[in-house]
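Predict the holo structure. Ligand: zinc ion.
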Amino acid sequence: MKDCIFCKIIAGEIPSAKVYEDEEMIVFKDIEPKAKIHLLCVPKDHFALLTEMDEKRAALVARMLRKIADKHAEWGLADGYRLVVNQGENAGQTVHHLHIHVLGGQTLPWD
Ligand code: AMP
Ligand code: ZN
């Protein structure tokens, strides 16, 4: 989608520190990390909210979770990690292209 920063990263128009890519998703380092390790897992299909998921997108999000589970140790997260999906204004969602934050590399504060 035009004017979407994550679509531009997917298209290779903006550089990113990529750790994984396949035909339906990309995983790269967050530019402003909120933990020692902070990755973003992003579907190549542009949609902003979980409410926009049809069955096909739901299956894609499930595969993204599966991929994180498969790769987490490779990404330095063997001791545990946290997933965050910000949805809408109150959550402070700033990029309106669905993404799963993957945080770890340290003990994470809960509050
Ligand atoms: P959210 O607030 O959940 O929408 O998260 C958006 C995240 O995208 C933030 O943590 C930003 O630091 C991150 N971000 C924005 N632009 C870039 C970029 N060009 N490369 C990597 N991460 C980015
Ligand atoms: Zn997008």
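Helices lie at 5-10, 55-71. The two ends are 35 Å apart (CA to CA).
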